[in-house]
Q: What sequence folds into this?
């Protein structure tokens, strides 16, 4: 739904390629041929966020591979009811490996060992190296020998209190959280082979990643669409000014948005109707083949829950959406632009609660939720989808639960995707300022063509409700950890804090416990330019409760 101009795709590819090149360079400590970078780029897009421990019973426990290796799920040759991971090296490269990006991090402060079971089809001795990346601390690794003999070797323990730094081999008692698990089997030699791994265990227990972390129960804004006729102008703004002058809307879309009652109205049954029609319509010097409506809520908020009960159209060529944009978006014609429009898309942040119709390879009942931020936008943003029952005929409740620490999307009260980047900074997490809800149906463009007999279609919306924290919830029994986020982390110049509750003090300590600063006002940021690189602790106090956040200054 965003301004996903096609020319940004090239830029994204270049940025992605650079990041991946740097990653690979760090992995191998030397430049590698370009074709490997392309393989890595391709596979990188397929990687799925996962959590430990890994027993391969879940088909999404799917490692990505690089350097000529490949990963697949298989069954245990000694136990047909046990799923295992199969790791294949073709022997073409010294450092063939496998990785998994973890949505829930490995925490070495909780347990500093990782264990696994290894199966060799051959009877040779092997080495397995586990490397942890994308952490609070530098990358670390531990290697273990698998004795000759073949078959299963169970409970091989990798002790990260005796790890080495991946970049120079310095021994280190590794600590902290890491979000990427990398496995090399017989790294450093060009030996082909097929191996099985199972029960990769860091001592943690799987959790429901889509469980919401903060319950928002205080209704702060709603429209139940109970007054038939025009859309309530105190709640909604009709956004009709095209965002690309002389062209129209983004993504090759073919509609004009109008403020006519033909395209949006409240019916006598209590539903907002957004109507997309096929008609020739000229506005702003542009003639389009479709009209529709795009509504901006005249209410913006930071953190909370949005519930929208709606029935959405599924016809080919239609692109219904329920979503939010930053109130600060610089987009002439948007409701908040003239007063607050300082920030370009995607730096303003975009949260797509529900989009339908632009995923041609998906089931007709597939809906997707996506985040657009400076790190990740257009083509392949962070997101996740689910399949609803009978979208065309059933009302569903589409929900967004946005806390300082995570954004969870729910369909009919059941979470199906959570965005929770390990490092929250302006590139991954512009979601610490006001957003506002948008409702619209776009036509054509990424949604493809309509059928020849298309006349018009309607999105029916029963209500839009926004909840925030209740007064009672900000009292003594809050879980402070979920209420305060610190970003960027690592930081070089400034550490920002965002919070939905009042703070009373922040104290910063070095790792030896020496108090470095105390703040009792202006809790929005801490200037850290003067501090040397390393780990520091922030002790944040609210209502006599404390939370400790580890921050890395580099
Ligand atoms: Ca298993
Ligand atoms: Ca209603």
A:
């Amino acid at each position: 739904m965003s301004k996903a101009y096609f020319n940004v795709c090239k830029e994204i590819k270049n940025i992605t390629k650079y990041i991946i090149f740097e990653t690979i360079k760090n992995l191998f400590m030397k430049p590698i041929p370009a074709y490997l970078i392309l393989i890595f780029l391709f596979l990188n897009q397929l990687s799925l966020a996962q959590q430990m421990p890994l027993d391969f019973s879940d088909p999404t426990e799917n490692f990505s591979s690089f350097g000529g290796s490949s990963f697949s799920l298989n069954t245990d040759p000694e136990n047909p009811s046990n799923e295992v991971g199969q790791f294949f090296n073709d022997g073409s490269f010294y450092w063939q490996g496998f990785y998994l990006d973890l949505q829930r991090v490995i925490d070495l402060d909780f347990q500093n060992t990782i264990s696994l079971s290894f199966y060799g089809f051959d009877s040779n001795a092997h080495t397995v190296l586990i490397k942890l990346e994308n952490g609070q601390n530098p990358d670390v690794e531990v290697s273990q020998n698998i004795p000759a003999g073949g078959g299963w070797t169970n409970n091989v323990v990798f002790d990260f209190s005796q790890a080495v730094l991946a970049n120079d081999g310095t021994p280190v008692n590794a600590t902290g959280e890491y979000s990427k698990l990398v496995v090399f089997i017989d790294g450093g030699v060009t030996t082909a082979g097929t191996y099985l791994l199972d029960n990769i265990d860091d001592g943690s227990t799987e959790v429901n990643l889509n469980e919401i972390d903060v319950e928002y129960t205080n209704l702060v804004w709603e429209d139940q669409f109970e007054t038939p006729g025009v859309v309530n102008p105190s709640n909604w703004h009709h956004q009709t000014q095209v965002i690309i002058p002389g062209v129209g809307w983004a993504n090759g879309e073919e509609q004009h948005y109008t403020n006519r009652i033909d395209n949006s109205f409240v019916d006598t049954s209590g539903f907002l109707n957004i109507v997309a029609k096929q008609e020739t319509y000229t506005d702003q010097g542009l003639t389009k083949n479709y009209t529709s409506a795009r509504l901006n809520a005249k209410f913006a908020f930071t953190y909370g829950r949005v519930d929208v009960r709606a029935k959405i159209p599924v016809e080919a060529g239609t692109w219904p959406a329920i979503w939010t944009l930053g109130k600060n978006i610089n987009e002439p014609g948007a409701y908040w632009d003239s007063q607050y429009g300082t920030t370009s898309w995607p730096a303003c942040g975009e949260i797509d609660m529900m989009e339908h119709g632009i995923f041609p390879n998906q089931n007709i009942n597939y809906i997707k939720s996506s985040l657009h931020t400076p790190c990740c936008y257009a083509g392949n943003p962070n997101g996740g989808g689910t399949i609803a029952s009978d979208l065309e005929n059933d009302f569903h409740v589409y929900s967004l639960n946005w806390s300082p620490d995570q954004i969870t999307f729910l369909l009919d009260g059941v979470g199906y995707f959570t965005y929770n980047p390990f490092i929250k900074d302006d590139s991954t997490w512009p979601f610490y300022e006001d957003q506002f809800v948008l409702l619209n149906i776009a036509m054509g463009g990424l949604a493809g063509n309509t059928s020849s007999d298309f006349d018009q279609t309607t999105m029916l919306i029963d209500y839009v409700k926004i909840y925030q924290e209740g007064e009672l919830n900000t009292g003594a029994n809050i879980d402070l950890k979920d209420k305060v986020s610190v970003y960027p982390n690592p930081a070089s110049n400034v550490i920002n804090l965002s919070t939905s509750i009042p703070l009373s003090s922040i104290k910063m300590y070095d790792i030896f416990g020496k108090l470095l600063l105390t703040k009792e006002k202006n809790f929005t940021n801490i200037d850290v330019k003067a501090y040397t690189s390393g780990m520091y602790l922030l002790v944040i106090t609210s209502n006599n409760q404390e939370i400790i956040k580890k921050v890395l200054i580099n």
In short: The chain is about 5% helix and 45% strand. The first helix runs from residue 7 to 28.
